[in-house]
């Protein structure tokens, strides 16, 4: 289960889709309105001044067109194909600042990860907890190079028949500068039952089994996070734990490295603690219980070591993500927190209930538990937003190009550059402001600022209120459309594809009767 922020019910999806359709229709209307050719009449007020000025300059232009310099100048200005090529080149140039912004997002994310590693190294890393395991040493024999018998000490491992784990986990958000790190304190209780250790199928002589050197071990990834550890109650006896595990390969496991969620590090799982219990009655079953209070960060994962493993976890955290091999059989997530329960049989694992020394057993594919996600993952959202930058800039350039061509409004390439840079800076603003206000607030602030600036600049380019208002409306709809896509994780590709298809269909419809070979920039004609 992902963060609650992204949970949207069926009604919510319907509303979002309906709003998206409305946005597309509104964008189509605004775009058609924006690019519809404008005819200037003598009653148009201030536009008549421009009309007269164009008429006065027409004679000067006709004289200049007879020179070689004039012919080249006006060919560049009036060629639709050449201007389209220039717009394409400018769009390609915009990829340079966008790649820099992508690198900036990665850099800020890496700095955030470094802060997480720094905090968790002092508080406690992602915790992977397993046990208890009953370990009984025994003697084995092998021949050396001189064919003489050599005695070795090996260890047999026995897992519990029943394992019950209950826990109350209390996460909290710690701040380091502008960054937030989710840490937690888990109060766990383990209880269960071991059957009598059985060596019968292994052909090990009774005299070679070291019953009096048996011990019980529990493993934990970051022992520095242990805050409290109660005595082990073993068939009514109280046993004190000692640091460390006598052997280094109780389990071979691959564990997540703190701060690097996707990396796996192979390591001998030796961190933990042990309690020694000389076995005097080898036919006796054992019941146990132990309490553990531990600090950790982000993840709490457990191993299903029991023939039957039951787990119950409660927490006031409102946005859990259940991860690992097994999802909970029952769960309840409310505004007051969550509770989750697992019931796992040994048949669903890849390792047995008992095995001899020298056999490698890996647990990395059987851990399960919960990840305490921050409600706002700004860098992931910024990274997703930046992926739409090229599409976003292309659509705005397309609107400018059609306004320029169909309304005879010559727009200098420098205006394309300024508008394109403004749209790029939006993503920088979004990244920087989101570190303080969160993504939604940053999107609103950055979007409004960008829309106002581009609209103001467009007003001085178009010199007509209708085109300016249309441009403003298109920008509002585009930013709204992108926000909807960012909110829809599962349907983002579908929604975005439909939107692009609609834009292409709109362009094809508007330009269906345009004779591009004979189209050129001409002065405004009188109605």
Count of helices? 10
N-to-C series of helices and strands: HHHHEEEEEEEEEEEEEEEEEEEEHHHHHH
Oligomerization status of the protein chains: single chain
Shape: elongated
Averaging pLDDT over every residue, what do you get?
78
Which runs of at least 5 residues are low in confidence (pLDDT < 50)? 1-10, 29-46, 253-269, 523-527
> Termini separation (Å)?
63 Å
Describe the sheet with the most strands. Answer: 9 strands, mixed
Structural class: alpha+beta
Q: How many strand segments? A: 20
Give the amount of beta strand, in percent. Answer: 25-35%
Q: C-alpha Rg, in Å? A: 35 Å
Instruction: Tell me roughly what share of residues is in helical segments.
Output: 40-55%
Please provide a written account of the structure:
The chain has 527 residues and is α+β, with helices and mostly antiparallel strands. It contains 10 helices and 20 strands. Strands 1, 2, 5, 9, 12, 14, 16, 19 and 20 form a 9-stranded mixed beta sheet that branches. Strands 3, 4, 6, 7, 8, 13, 15, 17 and 18 form a 9-stranded mixed beta sheet that branches. It has a two-stranded antiparallel ribbon with strand order 10-11. A hairpin with a 5-residue loop joins strand 1 and strand 2 (149-158). It is elongated. It starts with 9 loop residues before the first helix and ends in a 17-residue tail after the last helix.
């Amino acid at each position: 289960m992902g963060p609650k922020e992204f949970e949207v019910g069926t009604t919510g999806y319907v509303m979002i889709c309906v709003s998206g359709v409305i946005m597309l229709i509104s964008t189509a209307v605004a775009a058609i309105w924006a690019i519809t050719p404008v005819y200037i009449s003598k009653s148009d007020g201030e536009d008549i001044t421009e009309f007269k000025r164009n008429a006065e300059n027409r004679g000067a232009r006709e004289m200049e067109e007879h020179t070689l310099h004039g012919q080249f100048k006006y060919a560049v200005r009036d060629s639709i194909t050449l201007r389209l090529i220039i717009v394409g080149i400018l769009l390609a140039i915009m990829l340079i600042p966008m790649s820099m912004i992508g690198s900036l997002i990665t850099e800020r994310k890496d700095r955030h990860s470094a802060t997480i590693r720094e905090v968790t190294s002092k508080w406690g890393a992602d915790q992977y907890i397993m046990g208890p395991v009953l370990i009984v040493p025994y003697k084995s024999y092998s021949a050396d190079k001189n064919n003489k018998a050599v005695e070795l000490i090996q260890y047999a491992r026995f897992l519990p028949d029943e394992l019950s784990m209950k826990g109350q986990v209390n996460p909290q958000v710690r701040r380091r500068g502008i960054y937030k790190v989710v840490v937690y304190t888990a109060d766990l209780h383990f209880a269960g039952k071991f059957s009598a250790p059985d060596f019968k199928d292994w052909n090990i002589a009774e005299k070679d089994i070291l019953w009096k050197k048996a011990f019980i071990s529990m493993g934990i990834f970051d022992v520095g996070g242990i805050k409290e550890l109660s005595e082990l109650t073993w068939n009514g006896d109280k046993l004190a734990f000692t640091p460390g595990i006598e052997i280094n390969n109780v389990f071979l496991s691959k564990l997540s490295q703190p701060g690097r969620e996707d990396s796996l590090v192979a390591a001998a799982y030796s961190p933990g603690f042990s309690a020694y219990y000389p076995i005097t009655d080898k036919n006796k079953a054992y019941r146990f219980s132990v309490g553990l209070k531990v600090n950790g960060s982000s993840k709490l994962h457990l191993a299903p070591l029991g023939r039957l493993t039951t787990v119950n976890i409660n927490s006031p955290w409102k946005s859990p993500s259940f991860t690992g091999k097994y999802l909970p059989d029952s769960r309840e997530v409310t505004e007051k927190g969550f509770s989750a329960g697992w019931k796992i049989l040994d048949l669903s694992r890849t390792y047995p209930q008992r095995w001899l020394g020298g056999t490698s057993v890996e647990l990395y594919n059987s851990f399960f538990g919960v990840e305490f996600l921050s409600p706002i993952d700004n860098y992931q959202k910024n990274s997703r937003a930046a992926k739409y930058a090229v599409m976003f800039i292309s659509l705005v350039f397309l609107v400018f190009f059609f306004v320029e061509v169909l309304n005879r409004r010559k727009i200098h390439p420098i205006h394309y550059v300024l508008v394109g840079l403004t749209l790029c800076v939006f993503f920088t603003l979004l990244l920087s402001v989101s570190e303080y206000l969160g993504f939604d607030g940053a999107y609103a602030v950055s979007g409004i600022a960008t829309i106002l600036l581009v609209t103001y600049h467009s007003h001085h380019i178009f010199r007509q209120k209708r085109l300016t208002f249309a441009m403003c409306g298109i920008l509002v709809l585009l930013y709204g459309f992108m926000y909807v896509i960012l909110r829809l994780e599962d349907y983002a590709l579908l929604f975005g594809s439909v939107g692009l298809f609609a834009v292409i269909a709109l362009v094809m419809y508007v330009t269906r009767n345009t004779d591009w070979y004979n189209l050129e920039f001409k002065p405004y004609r009188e109605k």
